[in-house]
Specification:
This protein is an alpha/beta fold. The chain contains 9 helices and 14 strands.
């Protein structure tokens, strides 16, 4: 492998201990070391970009953000890519949401995320952990935004069934991917963490072989395959661990930080 020029990390189940926290002082040492070596840092997540910017507020203006599973990509504060679902796909999905009220959804676009009134407050609050700009609306059809993703969470035992159900409904107009712990996302075709990362690689003149990627879920698999060196977290499902080059300690033990310290001689 060539020298490392970019580190890409998933957030939940990978970089973060508990969806919220990481060792900021420890990361600061690693950040300074990466800056010395000219290594770029990218957060690639299913979460909204505003959540990433808040979490990494000290460095968000200098890093890459691949948010909403690749649907919205930033280089610092500059928009690099914004996906747009077709009118047909959005209309079909809204109709499906109205037909299956037992499966709650947040609809994401460039300006924010939206939840229909009548959905449980618990779901709204849960999704708000990942979407910092989220609003109640009467009807998804009333939203004026560039829509690129729908997100949901169900009992973990049901997520496979729901993924297959919505794959059948969208019939190729959108892709449906699991993101762990019962969460799943419906995204624009061909849009993924890997496609978002490729936008930044091309922009910065970095080869995939010069990247290190960390992940723990199905929506990380394409990014793991793209990177020259990849790590699945010990807490990841077996098929994700098998897909990666190596296994990092679990997120609860700051596994990403441990590996980065070793890679960069700290």
């Amino acid at each position: 492998m060539r020298d490392i020029k970019l580190v890409a990390v998933d957030e939940d189940g990978t970089f973060l201990r508990d969806h919220v926290h990481y060792d900021e002082r420890r990361f600061e040492r690693i950040w300074c070391r990466m800056r010395e070596l000219g290594v770029r840092f990218v957060v690639a997540t299913g979460n909204q970009c505003y959540q990433v910017q808040d979490l990494f507020s000290a460095h968000a203006h200098e890093m890459g953000i691949v948010s909403a599973n690749g649907a919205y990509v930033l280089d610092g504060d500059e928009e690099v890519f914004a996906a747009q679902a077709s009118h047909e796909a959005v209309s079909m999905l809204i109709a499906a949401c109205h037909e299956q009220r037992e499966v709650p959804f947040s609809m994401l676009g460039v300006r924010g995320a939206y939840v229909e009134r009548g959905t449980s407050q618990a779901f709204f609050d849960d999704m708000a952990r990942y979407c910092f700009r989220q609003y109640w609306v009467d009807d998804f059809f009333d939203v004026e935004d560039q829509v690129f993703m729908f997100s949901s969470v169900v009992d973990e035992a049901e997520v496979g069934t729901q993924i297959e159900r919505f794959r059948a409904k969208v019939d190729g107009l959108m892709d449906v991917v699991g993101s762990g712990e019962g969460y799943f996302d419906i995204v624009c075709p061909g849009v993924s963490k890997a496609s978002g990362l490729r936008c930044l690689l091309e922009r910065w003149g970095i080869a995939p072989e010069e990247c290190v990627a960390f992940g723990d879920s199905d929506n990380d698999l394409d990014m793991i395959a793209l990177a020259g060196r990849s790590y699945a977290m010990q807490n990841a499902p077996e098929h994700v661990r098998v897909a990666a080059d190596s296994v990092a300690p679990p997120c609860t033990e700051d596994g990403v930080l441990q590996v980065l310290e070793e890679l960069f001689g700290l």
